[in-house]
Every structure is written in C-alpha cells, then in structure tokens.
Amino acid sequence: MLRRTLAALAATALLAAPAVAQDFNWRAQEGRTVTLLLNNHPWSQAMREMSADFTARTGIRVRMEIFNEEQFRARLTTLMQGRSADVDVFMSLPSREGAVFKRAGWYTDLAPLIADRARTAPDFNYEDFGAGMRQQATLDGLVATLPINQEGPLFYWRRDIFQRCGIPEPRFVEDIPEAAAKLRACDANQGVWAARGLRGAVPYALTGFINNLGGSYATPDGKPGLCQPASVRGIEMYANLLKEYGPPGALNHTFTQVIELLGQGRIAMTHESSNEFANIVRFPGRAQDIGVRVLPPGRETGISRPVVIGWGLAISAHSRQRDAAWLFLQWATSTEVQTRLVQNGVAPPRASVFQGPAFTAWANEMPIRRAWADALVEIGRTGTGVYQSPTDRIPEARDIIGNAVQQVVLGRASARDAACAADAELARLQ
Amino acid sequence: MSATAVAGTVARPARLRRRPTASFRWMVAPALLFAAGMIVLPFGWAIWLSLQETMIGGEARFIGLDNYRRLIADDEFWNGFRLTIVLWLLSLALQLVLGTWLGLLLARLDAARGLIRTVLISPFMLPPVVIGMMAIVILDPGLGVANWLLKEAGLPQLLFLADPDTVILTVALLDTWQWTPFVALIVLGGYLSLPRDVFEAAEIDGARAWQRFRRITLPLLAPTLVTAAVLRSVDLLRFFDVIYITTQGGPGHASTTLNILAYRRGFEFFEFGYAAALMVTLSAIVFGSVLTFARLRRAVAW
C-alpha cells in the first residue's frame, strides 16, 4: 500500500513537472557516461535500481562502483591522489573528511553550478535542504557536496522485554546501566546490550554518552577534553555497558554485528545508526516490539546532544564529465527521488520531503516509523557533527578515542587513565 | 674421439660468452621494460616517497631519513614488527610440520588420490577475502557456529579474534588451514621425485620408520621444504587481507602487523611518506628472509 501511495505521489510530482521541465533540458549531456564511486549504504543500494530512471530521463549512462566503507575510502584515495578522471561523482562525509579533501582540491565547488540558471533545473531549490546540512557541506564558502541523507545514532530497545521484566523505558542516560542490571537479573539468558567496539567506529556511538553527561571532546580553550571528569564518566558508562553487558567479541563489532544481534532478538538495547532502521524492522517481529528514540538526556545535566551527520554527493575536481555529473547530482537529490528513497529507510535531508505528505503518510502507517521520524527531526534540530577533539586529522583522532574505550573494556586501564593518555596523543594532532 | 671431446669442451664456453645480437636485445627489451615499469619504478617511487613528508592537501617536503628515524622511535612500529615476526614464525612452523605430514600421508594413499588432492587444493583456491568473511561469521563469539559447537560439546567458549591474547594465534590457524595443503602438495611432489633405491636400501638394512624419516626422508626433502618456506614466508610477512577484514588490526593493536599499520597510516590517516617508509622497511625484511632461505637452500642441497 505504501509503495502505491508513494508511486502515486511521485507520479503526481512528475505530472506537475512538465511545465518546469520544458524550461530545462535534461538531455543536454545525452550519450555521456558518469562513473559513481559509492560507499555501501542504503542510499547506494537503492540507487542501483533507480539509476535506470536517470538514464531514461537524460540519456546519460551510469557506471556504479559500490564498496564497503574501508575499501571505498582506499579506492577513492588512490584515484584522487593519482588525479584520475575515472570517477566523476563520489560519496563524501564532509563532517569527517571535508577539511582534508578541500585542502587537497578534490571537490568541485558546487556553488557556481547551483547559481547557474542554464545548468540547474528551476525547481532544484537548494534552500530546501536543512540549514544544518547545508552548513556541514559548505567549507569556507565552497559547497562540497549535496546532502543525500541525514543520520545519527539512536537508542533502540525491546519494549516487550522491558514490559515483561517490569522495567520502565529509560528516561535519562543514567537509567540505561540501571535497566541493564535489572534485565540481567530478570532473565539471565537474554542478551542485554550491544554497541560498536571496533576502534574507529566507537566515537559515533560514544559521543551521545559523553555529551549528555556534560562532557565534551574539547576543553573551553580548544584542547582535547576527554580527560575532563564528565567526559570520563561518558567513556566509563559506554565502556562498562560493553564490558558488563555486551556480547562476547564486542571489540570487533561495528553496525553489522550490532544490527544482527538486535534483529535476531539476542539483545534488549543498543545505540546504533538511524540508517539501520529499515534493516532492523525487516527482521520478523522487530517492527512490533522495538522502540526507538534519541539517546535520553543526562539526569543532572538535562543535556541531549546527539550526533547528526549527512552523507553527500561530490563531483570530483578531476572529472571530465562535470556537466553530466551535475545533472546526476540534481536528479539524485531531487524531491522526487528522495520521496522514493524513504522506502529504503533513507532519511531525507530536504525539508519539503520530510514535511511532505508522502513521508508523513508513510511515517503514520506504523508507530515505530513515527518514532523514528520524530527522532530524526530531533537530531536534526539538536545534533552535532563533531565527534572528536579539535583537529583536521579526524580519522586518526577517532581511532585514538576508540582505542581509549577498548583499553577500558579490556580492563587494561581505568576510564580516567585511558582518557588522559588519549588526550596526550590527541594533542599531537592539533 | 679425444679431439672431438676437447673441441666440444672448448666450443661451449665460447658460445656462452658470445655477445647478444641486436635481434636478441630487441626480443628481450619488452620484458625488461615491463619489469622496469612494474617493479623498479614503483619501488623507486616508494623509496623517494619515504624520504618525504607527504600528506593530502599539503606540499610534499623532502625530509631525508626522518621518516625512518620516526619509525625507530615509534612503539606502534615495534609492536607491528613483533606481531609480523610472531605470525610469520608461528604459521610457517605449523604449515611446514603439518604440510610435511600431510604430503607424506598422501604419498602412501592409493585410493581416490585425485579426489583427495582436488579437495586439498580447494582452501588455497579461495580468495583471502572469502576466508576473512567466513572467519567473521564462524568465529564471532556470540553469533558464530564455532562457539555453538564448543558449547554443544561441553567445552569452554572462546573469544578467538576478539581476544588480544589469541587473535594472532587464530589468524595463524586460519592461514594454516588455508595453506597447509599447498605445502603438502609441494612436499608430495618433492617426495615422489626422490630416488627409491635409497629407501629400499635403508629398509633392507633394517632402519625403522622413524630412522628412515629422520635420516633419509627429511634430509632429502630439505631443499623442497626450503622452497615451500620461501613461498610461504613472502606471503606471511606481508599478511594483510584476513586481518584487515576480521579485526582491522584490533582488538587494541593486538593484530596491527606492519602491513596493516602501513595501510592505516597511508589510506586512513593519509601519511603517505611515513606509510612508504614502513613498506620499504617491510620489503627489506621480506628480501632479507628470502636471501636467508636462499643461503639455507644451498646449505641443504644434495
């Protein structure tokens, strides 16, 4: 039914489009080929099927390379460092690598293209993307990417298990360890908690704990701030949840294992990406028995400051198909395409889609979808894209932070010692 | 007859010393150019890169041997060096011992020989990526079948790749599972080419099986084993795929071998100069091990 509703709405959008489309020549680059280098992500998986529609509209062929994130980054680095024209469009996380990629000159500045009336469809409406998203994608005036989604870690819990054990839904972040202890006492055979333990993946899920308990990755004067008491408390809570209540082998886990554990019903709580919502509810029963919300605020601090990031599409500075690539970017981030992408669990960065009738109808069909959508609105409003101490060597900084958490989980250091040792390493990256 | 023999012995060196003709040079040129393009130039470039400070977005700066000085003072390098050597020696020892045993067992096998050899080949025909993915699924302490089997058998469950104390051993066992059949087939080929009369004479003289193995089989197989050791060493010292897929060098830095460290420094942290210095050092270690084995091969030749 949902598919029919969305198809009808998309068709209506298309019927309304001709008046505008007549003014814009989508077939100006007919016969060309654009090559996309994409991270394996719900957006890319959906694009595999949808790109045929782009070819039908523009006559531009699409060649797509999709890799898991590590391989994707390695290939991108190799191609861009070699100034290769083999890739025209690539996915990028400006909050992670924006500063470095910009310095390297890898991004085509999209601002002139957006402003160019001959090259840009009249109904494109760049301002329709959320202000935060546009801000993350703009680096010192250079528009590096067009946003394709927004995401952030959310708190998922099994409502049925909580109900069976008579445990109330956590209202504050401090309630999570207490709920974990009660769950263990209630049913020793039920797994309690899972979260990312793999070094580089940890900070994404850890940050909410640090922020909500009043901590920060930076001191007021801009130095690394993991060693501050409130930050230490955040690290301690995250690491202890993994250590005391996490699955065996958690230190090699990233979202794939965490989602598998939640989907299979082996755990009762996690803090994992909003992106994985569609995958989670595909498991039998999960759409009915899980709850989802933003990580609860700190009890004493009242702070709720989750992570929110957005992948974007960039045009390679070395591309020889810039105009064809720009047509692809416009189409892939259009209202019409984003409306359809919601079915794949891709949270739309366009306000018109997020507040539009199709998305609202889809979200209202099930309470869990409504909760997910509300959580996304909230992280869009209150979230931060910063989840490492101040530096532009971001991947390295996140690795150091993840390593500190691992040391605590392994019992090799106290949270304070690990955090202070990490600060010393992080200071060298500034 | 004697004159002919003398003429023959004189003629051969003369032919060997003959200067290459122009057409010979042209025929060899493509191979030389290919070797230069694919081996010498990239290696030379890597050495040049290792003498620079190169980061994405920054200007490359010649810094002489600073990357190598940094490497000597870097705890992560020494940790990677130790892990590389431990993984190499552990895996090599396991594969040579088990491979020799399996190879000799195969030599005695009469029935279904072709089928068994085909089955044995299958592990090393698998791409390392597949092995890594299988390891993730099978050895995950919570989700994997390995711990389920241990539990069913009433044995204690293990953390495998998730325990810093067992991760290298687990990786070594994975590699041993994959590559022992390869060593076994080399040993089998070597064993079947040995002169039979030596074994028959030893048997007639009353040598027991262990004595025959220790005093005859092993010394005669030594050059074959060294060849197998060289082939496996080159792979083991630059071991990468399975570790990267399963642990990415963790938990902590417990499986960050030199190759993993160099990859992370280069492709994740964009320190190309330092990563190149690490790779040049690793290449020197591989080259050193090959030279050592080449000497050893000469020493055990018969």
TrEMBL record, chain A:
InterPro entries: Bact_solute-bd_prot1 (IPR050490), SBP (IPR006059)
Pfam families found in the cross-reference section: SBP_bac_1
Keywords: Cell membrane, Lipoprotein, Membrane, Palmitate, Signal
First-listed, main subcellular location of the protein, grouped into a coarse class: periplasm
Signal peptide location: 1-21
GO cellular component, as recorded: periplasmic space
Location relative to the cell: Periplasm
Family affiliation: Belongs to the bacterial solute-binding protein 1 family.
The name this protein goes by in its record: Carbohydrate ABC transporter substrate-binding protein
Organism: Falsiroseomonas bella
